[in-house]
Amino acid sequence: MERSTQFGSSQQLTRRQLIRRTLAIGVALSSATSLLAACGGGTQPTPTPAPQAAQTPATAAGEDKLEIFSWWTNPGEADGLAALFEIFEKRKPGVEIINATVAGGAGTNAKAVLVTRMQGGNPPDSFQVHAGQELIGTWVVAGKMEPINDLFEQEGWSKVMPKTLLDQISYKGEFFSVPVNIHRSNMLWYNKKVFADNGLEPPKTLDDFFAVAEKLKAAGVTPLSVGGKDKFEVPHLFEDLLLAVFGPADYTKLFSEPSLWESDPRVDEAIEVLDRFLSFANEDRSALSWADAAQRVIDGTAAMTIMGDWAYGYFINKGAKAGEVFGWAPSPGTDGMFMWLSDSFGLPKGAPHRNNAIEWLKVCGSREGQDAFNPKKGSIPARTDPDRSVYDEYLLYSIDRFAQDALAPSVVHGAAANEAYMTEYGNALNVFSASRDKKQVKSMLIEATRELKR
Q1: Contact 345, 126 (CB under 8 A)
Q2: 330: closest CA among 206, 169, 453?
Q3: Which residues pair with 179 in a beta bridge?
Q4: Once rounded to an integer, what is the mean pLDDT over residues 104-125?
Q5: Looking at residues 123-150, what average pLDDT do you find?
Q6: 99 forms bridges with which residues in the sheet?
Q7: What are the pLDDT digits (tens) for 6-32?
Q8: Which helix (H) or strand (E) holds 254?
Q9: CB-based contact 368:214 (threshold 8 Å)
Q10: Which residues of 164-201 are buried (b: 16+ CB within 10 A; e: fewer)?
C-alpha cells in the first residue's frame, strides 16, 4: 500500500452528500421522539469518567484529556473498554479519559449523535466504528478521517492482522482505523438445562430448528428469545437466515449485485423462514434489548437466542458458566460459515487531543491491549499473534473457526454495505417485526437497494 504523508488528506464529498449518507442513521429508529430521548434531545452525550486514574484533573491548557466515543455500556463490553482504559492510563498517567458512551446495541443511538458532532465540527478524539463500509462509505470518502499508514508501519500491524480485515479498513492504499477485535455474529446460544430436560440437541439446520422449537413450545417454553428495543436485533436475525438460505458466496452477492433482491426467489424463501422463526419468538420483543433477550436464556425462561458473540461476554459477566448454564452453536444452517464484523477506532480530522488519540490507537492495536480487551468483550483479537493462554474454550473455538470457515461480512454491523443502506435494511426488518407483512418487507428491501447503487 502507498505510504501516507503526514496523515494526508482524503477525498471530499459535499455537505449535502454526507448528510444524505449519514443522517439516514436516525431514520432507522422507530420515532424521532425516542431518538431524542435516547440522545439527550439531540445534544452531545453526557460523558462519563473512566475509572480510577482517568479522573485526574486536566491541565490549564486542557491538553491532558482523551475523549473516546462508543456504545459499549452493557456488561462485558463495558468491562473490555475499561481494560483498554487501564492500559492507556499506565502508558499516559495524568491524562483524563472522557468515556463518552451512548447506550444502544450496534450503535443505533450513538451513530446519530456522532453525525451531529462530526457535522458540527466537534469530533471526539477517537470513536468506535465497524470496519468495512460503515467506516469507509460513511466517514472516509467524506474526508472526515486521517489516514494512519505511518502508525501501521511504526507498530507493524499490517504484519499481524489478516488481509481480509486490512482490506476492510483501507481506501485507495491508505489505512483509516485500528481494529481491536473480530466478532462472529451467526451464533445460537441455548440454555443447557432446558435442552437437557427436554431431550434436545442444538439445531444444526433450519429444519432442525423448527422441530426443536415445536417441542419447546409444546413444553411451555419460549423457544426463541428476540429483542427489538435496540433496533438491530431482528435485522441481525434476518442476516443470519439470509446466510443460511444463500450460503456465504451468494449472500455476499446480495450487496454487490442488488438486483438479486428482486429477481432471486431465495429472498422470498428467507423472508418466509424469518416469519416462521418469529412465530416461535416472544411477542414483547420491541420492549427488550438484545441483552434482555439473552438474560432470559440464562434465566431459563427462554431456550435460545441468536446473537453475536458479544452475548458470550454478557453471559460470563453475569456469572453464567459456559458449558454448564449455556451452550453455543453456529446459527441454524450456517455451520462452516463465519459471519464476521470488527470494531475499530480511527483518528478524526480535527481531533482536539490528537497526540493522545494516537497513543490510544497504539493501545487498541497492541497485543497487550487486545489480549486484555477481548476475553471480557467476548470477541477474538484482530491480531494473529494472541497469547492463547488468556482465552477460554469458546474464544479459542472462535479463533480457530475464523481461520477455517468460509467468511461472510455482516451487513447489520457495517462490514458488507454502507450506512445509508444499513439504515433502510434495518428499518424494513423492524417494520416487519411488528407487521409480519411479507409483501411489504420485500418491497422495502428492494427499495433499500438504491443505496447500494450510489
Answers
A1: yes
A2: 206
A3: 344
A4: 88
A5: 95
A6: 48, 68
A7: 333 333 343 334 434 443 433 333 333
A8: helix 233-256
A9: no
A10: ebbebbbbeebbbbbbbbbbbbbbbbbbbebbeeeebe
